Amino acid sequence: MKLLKIYLFVIPLILIVNYSCSDLKEDISAPVSSSGIHGEGVLNKNSPNFHGGYLVNKEFIFCQKCHAGDFSGGITGVSCNSSLCHPAISVHSFRPTGSDSVYPNVHGAFIRKNGWNMDGCKTCHGTNYSGGISSQTCQTCHKSSNGPEACNTCHGNFNDGILTDSTRLAPPRTVLSEDNSAAGAHVSHLYENDLTANVDCEQCHVVPNKVNDPGHIIPGATHATLTFGDLAKNLGADPSYNYDNKKCSNVYCHGNFTFFKDSTSFAFIYTDSLIIGNNFQPQWNKLDDSQAECGTCHSLPPIGHQNAGNDPEATTCSVCHLGVGADGTIIDSTKHINGKINVFGN
Predict the structure, then answer these.
(1) Which of 239, 266, 284, 342 is the most exposed place for a label (fewest CB within 10 A)?
(2) 10 Å Cβ neighbour count for 194?
């Protein structure tokens, strides 16, 4: 009889407890304060209970168990991705690295969608991206001196085996296209220029010191702003760029020049009162070598200039212009398109 009474007491108790636990699993109330879970100082970076330190040797899945897969709050009701905390945290809820075209949620694509604002990255990775509270440095991949803020992070493919060279910080790849031709003739101007000294970026653009400098990133802009420097404006040239047909006009570098017979010590070479260039209009994205062939920017010889020896190929240029080879090619690029008249060795 005594044993029966025990059973009658224990069995209902087990049923009540089981039901209660099942009920709690279906409706778990959000905690009033996060400090009850993480301990006091959860938001204090100097506290041993700081939540960022909890993740040093763990993964975000530990956060997602309570704060939901998208960090919007989950069962805690406390969002991690609010504007006051980690507005960029969802970038790492998927694959963080790889090609944008294969993994559209990688961090590069996220930064692009966020208007190239990298402040969210610094929240966890530190102001210099060396690791910060996450202990994950960005500099393993972003090896240039400015880390992820180096020019070639956005303006070039820094992992292609070429642009890891910190001296190459410009396109070919653009920030808005995977098509290298969209970046135009950057390479032939800046790095592989056989006709003149490599052109500085400042000759066409205002170059920012920092990624967030005013005028660098303009919301909604579909192209860079052309400003043109002293070389392009040499001899009073007034250069311009047509964004529709992608052509430069009135640029000294491409033949907008005039030399006057009455202001030179070498008047004998003139056949007229002026020597003038062709004021050629090169198309920026036409990359077939036709836009800078000899004879495009100025005739051979230039209009108003004697043709020494009546040479139709102007191969006798080298007699006076020592930066030109016997075959008419440029052999000293520092003495061509440099804003000066280089003759007889000067």
Answers:
(1) 266
(2) 11
- Give the C-alpha separation, 182 to 155, whole Å: 12
The one-character DSSP state at 202 is G
Q: Report DSSP state, residue 329.
A: -
Per-residue model confidence (pLDDT) at position 84? 66
Task: Let me know: does 64 contact 76? Beta carbons within 8 Å.
Answer: no
pTM (2 d.p.):
0.67
- Pairing of β 258-260 and β 247-249: unpaired
The total of other beta-carbon atoms located within 10 Å of residue 155's CB is 21
Contact 158, 86 (CB under 8 A): no
Three-state DSSP at 211 gives coil
DSSP bridge partners of 303: 276
Collapsing DSSP to helix, strand or coil, 148 comes out as helix
For residue 231, name the pLDDT band (cuts at 50, 70, 90).
Answer: very high
Amino acid at 286: K
Q: What is the pLDDT of residues 188-204, one digit of tens each?
A: 898 889 899 999 888 99
Instruction: Say which amino acid occupies 21.
Output: C
Please identify which residue in the block is written with the tokens 């590069």: 108
Cα–Cα distances in Å, from 91 out to 156, 243, 263?
22, 34, 64
Please give the backbone phi and psi of residue 305, each rounded to the nearest 5 degrees, phi first: -110, 135
3-state helix, strand, coil in the chain (%, to 5): 30, 5, 65
Is residue 169 a contact partner of residue 144, using CB atoms and an 8 Å limit? yes
Give the DSSP H/E element, type plus range, for residue 249.
strand 247-249
The span from the CA of 315 to the CA of 327, in Å, is: 5
* Structure-token pair, residue 208: 């920012």
Cβ-in-10-Å burial (0-12, 13-18, 19+) of 71 comes to buried
Q: Answer whether 229's CB lies under 8 Å from 204's CB.
A: yes
Q: Most distant CA pair in the chain: distance in Å?
A: 135
- Cβ contact 48:54 at 8 Å: no
d(CA 296, CA 315): 16
